[in-house]
């Protein structure tokens, strides 16, 4: 991962954002990372809450005080456990685009962002900030739901669609898993039980297995008659997965998972984090 691992955590002081900060700090301890707690001043949002403060004078003072308090708490808890540093940064502008631009400027390795859960991904509110960030960023991103509180991940579930990037992505997942001795299930969900899927799965295992040195890896092929996303949800529940991992290089697969099916029936993601790997 390199010696200068940087984690960017956008904060709006909501419960789900604070959960994301906890994940960011705990992951930062393992990577000996630089953590940046990032807040974008959004004047319109603030004025809706405090219409009398037209110049935003008290807004900035309030934000600075809150950020300093969070920074002190993170430093006290995580610095002795390996976190390299924790900084706070404030910008003004569009939350999504400002965060994405800043992540590129600092060459962030990972963005950790909070979400209210499945409602963030519903088609009718597709403009939600965390969903937009997932789709638009070129950085790895971990989406932490409001009801997810950090615990050592016992199992990571990697959803594979047999793309070329799987091998590089799984190496990243293995590096992460080693910090926690986590089990990894590399899973392909097929809508039908077909011989071609069995052949592709065998090929994937033969290619990936020699490339990783980690004993807690399982290779799973499952047939699910409904759509792929529901099949992954079903597997997550049965396997008691703690984090879902996927890549976003294959756009049709990514869209199928996160811009179509999540809007209908899936509920498991309300409580489980989603790690989308975007860089290799």
Secondary structure topology:
Blueprint: E1 6-10, H1 15-31, E2 34-41, H2 43-49, H3 57-78, E3 85-92, H4 95-105, E4 110-115, H5 129-136, E5 140-145, E6 155-159, H6 166-180, E7 183-190, H7 195-208, E8 217-223, H8 228-239, E9 243-247, H9 251-260, E10 274-277
Helix pairs in contact: 4-5
Characterise this structure.
The protein has helices at residues 15-31, 43-49, 57-78, 95-105, 129-136, 166-180, 195-208, 228-239, 251-260, and strands at 6-10, 34-41, 85-92, 110-115, 140-145, 155-159, 183-190, 217-223, 243-247, 274-277. With 280 residues, it is α/β, with parallel strands linked by helices. Strands 3-2-1-4-5-10-9-6-7-8 form a 10-stranded mixed sheet, sandwiched between helices. The longest helix has 22 residues, at 57-78.
């Amino acid at each position: 991962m390199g010696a200068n691992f940087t984690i960017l955590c956008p904060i709006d002081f909501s419960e789900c954002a604070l959960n994301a900060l906890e994940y960011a700090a705990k992951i930062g301890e393992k990577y000996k990372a630089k953590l940046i707690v990032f807040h974008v001043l959004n004047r319109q949002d603030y004025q809706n809450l405090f219409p009398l403060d037209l110049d935003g004078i008290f807004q900035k003072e309030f934000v600075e005080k809150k950020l300093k308090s969070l920074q002190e708490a993170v430093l006290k808890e995580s610095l002795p456990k390996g976190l390299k540093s924790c900084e706070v940064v404030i910008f003004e502008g569009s939350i999504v685009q400002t965060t994405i631009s800043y992540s590129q400027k600092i060459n962030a390795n990972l963005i950790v962002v909070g979400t209210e859960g499945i409602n963030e991904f519903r088609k009718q509110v597709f403009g939600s900030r965390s969903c937009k960030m997932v789709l638009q960023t070129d950085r790895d991103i971990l989406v932490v739901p409001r009801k997810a509180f950090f615990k050592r991940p016992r199992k990571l579930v990697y959803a594979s669609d047999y793309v070329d990037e799987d091998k590089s992505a799984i190496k990243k997942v293995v590096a992460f898993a080693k910090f926690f001795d986590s089990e990894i299930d590399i899973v392909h969900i097929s809508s039908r039980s077909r011989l071609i899927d069995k052949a592709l799965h065998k090929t994937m295992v033969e290619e990936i297995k020699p490339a990783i040195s980690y004993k807690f890896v399982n290779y799973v092929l499952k047939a699910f008659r409904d759509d792929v996303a529901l099949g992954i949800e079903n597997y997550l529940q049965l396997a008691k997965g703690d984090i879902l991992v996927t890549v976003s290089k294959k756009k049709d697969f990514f869209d199928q998972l996160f811009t179509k099916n999540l809007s209908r029936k899936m509920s498991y993601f309300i409580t489980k984090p989603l790690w989308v790997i975007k860089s290799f």
